[in-house]
Input
Amino acid sequence: MSGAVFATTLRLRLMTAVLAGVGMLAVILMVGALFPSVGDSIGKLNVPDGVANLLGGADYGTITGWMRSEIGAIYGPLVIAASAIAAAAATTAGEEESGILGLVLAHPVARGRVMLAKGGAVAVVVVIVAAGTWLGLLAGVAAAGGGISLADMTALAVQLACFGFTFGALALALAGITGRKAVAAAGAGSFGVLAFLVNGFAPLVDGLDWLKYLSPFYWYAGHDPLTNGLFVGGLVVLLVTTAVLVVVAVVGFGHRDLRA
Output
């Protein structure tokens, strides 16, 4: 990894990452503060099973169900995946399209080290957003009167970070192979939407239940970290997938002619 490239990339993305983390903290705090007023009146939604799966169970009558549906199933994965994808696409293919990456590689630094440095900066972005989510859960649950353990809130933040690593690595791989920012961002984003829908609806179709195992959403939240704590198997799958995708990014970037 090139320390200079890592530091420069992180400096350029740091403010955006911090704002996303602070935004998550503020949103979760407001969500938690709303629970005492509206949680009991909403209760568990009477919706089809597929919709309930997409909403993390659609149970708004408990603080765990409220946070799971509002943060764990929607805001959390949406913000962290978007942050990771945007950072990965912009700092690799985006810089290649603008000609900046060519200038960087004019110096005596290997392509693989540059890609690893970019990936390391993206990982820090993900950690910052996950940390904002964790702090938001602490504040939001306290504002709601408590009801979720520190261990379970930490579990959600850790699972969420590994989920973000996977999507950042996917965008890096697409950028490394194609050199196109639009392909990296749209490809990773489209996969995220498809994976979200598959995780919600595949279990309802006979013979297609196995498809959920192909979705990062299952390995992130299928074990319900806000109730059951860390899902070690899920963490392993997400981290191994991330590592494989980073290797694909490095190899693809190293064997491709850079765009002029």
About this structure: The chain has ten helices and no strands.
